[in-house]
Every structure is written in C-alpha cells, then in structure tokens.
Design goal:
With 343 residues, the protein is an alpha/beta fold. It is built from 16 helices and nine strands.
Length: 343
C-alpha cells in the first residue's frame, strides 16, 4: 500500500501527512469556472462524465494533492430518487419535497437509482484511469439526515427546522425516509467503489443540529449501518465520516459507527481532538477555510499548529469545511508547502 492517504486511513502515522481539500474542485479555480461555462449548468456538469472528470482532476494537476474527490453533489441522490432538483444561481438548490406518505411512496427504490446515476460511475472510471499513481480516489454521498433535511424543506434551511418538525409530527414517515435514504446511500456508495473509488466519505453537514437521542438515532445509527454494509461488500475500502459540528460528540463516533476516519470541522480544538478522537484512529482536518483567503503568517502558524497537535497519530490534513470561492490558489500552495516542510 503506497498511497499516503490509504496508509493514513489504515492507521499509519506518517511524518508528512497526506493532504487534500473538501470542495477542492470548484469555484476558486479559474479552470473550473471555464469548464463550468462549457457545461451550461451545474447539473449538466455533474452528469457529463468527461467534464466532471476534468473538474475532478484539475486540483490534482495544479496542487499535486494526495487524493482526488469525485465532482458531484449530495443532491444527486434526491434527483435519482425522482424529486425535481435544480440549482438557482446565487441562491442554492431547490427541490420538490417529501412531506406526506404519498410523496414518500412516489420515491424510487434504493436499487433503482443506478441508471440515473450511471454518469457518476463513468466519471469515476475516467478519473481512476487518469490519476497519478500516488493519488487516491475518493467518492462521497450526503448522510441520510442531511439529505433528508433538503428533501423535506425543498432547500437549505437555518437549523433544519422543517426536518425537525416532520420528525416530531410524523415520526413514522420521517423514520421511513431515513431508512430509505440509508439503503439508497449504501447502494450508491457501493456502486462508486465498484467504479474505482478507493475511499468514500459520508458528509453529514447538518449533524450538529441533532440533539440528545436524535443524534444517536439519525447521525450515529445510519452511519453505522452504511459502514457495516460497505465493509461487508468491500472490505478493502475506507470510509471517512464527517458529522459536522458534532462538538464533543466527535468522541467515540468512530467506535460507535466503525468509520475508518473522522473528519473534524474547524470549530474543534485540535489538541482536544488529538486526545479524545484520534485515540480511536485516524482523524482528518481541520484548517479554517478563511485562512486560504487571508494567507500569510496566520496560515503558516495555524497549519503548523494542526500538524503539531496530530503528529503522534494517523492524520489526514484537510480543511474544517469546504474551500471557499474567494480562496487564493497561491495560499493553497503556501499551505501545501508548509505541510510538506518547504516553508
């Protein structure tokens, strides 16, 4: 096993850790913006394998990162399940909703999504055949709670209020939707692995809004089911879990779910995480994305601080959230040079 990311995810402490960035293929790169224009719209870009593969490979060429992550979107799953999904420029996604039993009954079955998502698997095959030998390929999906919150509200919402309301008012329907999305995610990620993904990541972007038993039921348990099923089908694949804004509940998340690595958001103190999370296995993170806008000595200091905090165990260097459109590519180079001890 020579790829640094795979070695780190297997539990090896590496002096110079592997590095990649969430949303590394995206709007901060001029080459992405040019490709996005050629595609016409965002969903067309996601569903055109040659263009999606080009976007996936662009940050590898520019930055010499240790992994490529599939260019797609977590809302391709609702799209494949039969909801109307569109992206409004400057205003985010809009979806038809699932708020009644009739809406739920109209969803496609978990194993009936593959023809719709075939372009995603083709993208992975193209990327797999064109990656440098040292770079790993990461697939991903949204976690059930996060995807459900969009399907219920029809858009992103502060605090995920509509999803919490449905959970309280129609618990049977809500639980059925979470179970359906869990099965769908297993099927989707399994197909990504079969198409060439060596690692898959589960993005639970809104896990932090779950409280008490809800966190166990709707963040921990679906992740546990997904990891167990994937490991049964693909024992060599690694799974990264990202229950964003879980706070102290990051502790024990790997033990309770079986995830190979826990990604940390940038609100988490790395020293605390090294003591309470990294003790159970690899961690990923967790530089604040704003530092790739600001750059300079602050970027160097915080990068070195994170490296120092996690140096005693397996660590994948990454951001605590996705890179922002206003990030400066020169600052990304500075971060990488600092990690690789060139600065």
């Amino acid at each position: 096993m020579t790829k640094k990311l795979l070695r780190a995810l297997a539990g090896e402490r590496i002096e110079v850790p592997p590095v990649w960035m969430m949303r590394q293929a995206g709007r901060h790169l001029p080459e992405y913006r040019e490709t996005r224009t050629r595609a016409g719209d965002f969903l067309a870009l996601c569903y055109t394998p040659e263009l999606a593969a080009e976007v996936t490979l662009q940050p590898i060429r520019r930055y010499d990162l240790d992994a490529a992550i599939l260019f797609a979107d977590i809302l391709l799953v609702p799209d494949a399940l039969g909801l109307e999904v569109r992206f409004v420029e400057g205003d985010g996604p809009r979806l038809s909703t699932v708020t009644t039993r009739a809406d739920f009954d109209a969803l496609r079955a978990p194993d009936a999504i593959h023809d719709h998502l075939a372009p995603v698997y083709d993208t992975l095959r193209i990327v797999s055949g064109n990656l440098p030998s040292k770079a790993a390929l990461i697939g991903f999906a949204g976690a059930p709670w996060t995807v459900a919150s969009y399907m219920i509200a029809g858009k992103g919402t502060p605090g995920q209020g509509p999803a919490h309301a449905l959970k309280m008012e129609q618990p049977g329907l809500f639980d059925a939707l979470i179970a359906h999305l869990t099965d769908t995610t297993i099927s989707y990620l399994s197909a990504q692995i079969e198409a060439g993904a060596e690692v898959v990541k589960l993005f639970d972007s809104w896990a932090g809004s779950l409280r008490g038993e809800d966190f166990e039921n709707y963040a921990v348990e679906p992740t546990r089911r997904i990891v167990r099923a994937l490991k049964s089908r693909h024992p060599d694949a690694s799974v990264i879990a990202f229950p964003r804004e879980a706070g102290k509940r990051y502790e024990g998340f790997a033990r309770r779910t079986g995830a190979d690595c826990i990604a940390l958001d940038n609100s988490v103190d790395p020293v605390w995480a090294a003591r309470h999370v990294q003790k159970d296995g690899p961690v990923q993170g967790n530089l604040a994305p704003r530092l790739l806008v600001a750059g300079g000595d602050a970027l160097i200091r915080e990068t070195r601080s994170i490296l120092k905090a996690f140096k005693a165990g397996p660590h994948v260097f990454n951001l605590g959230h996705g890179i922002t459109p206003d990030a400066n590519p020169d600052n990304v180079h500075l971060m990488i040079d600092t990690i690789r001890k060139r600065t």
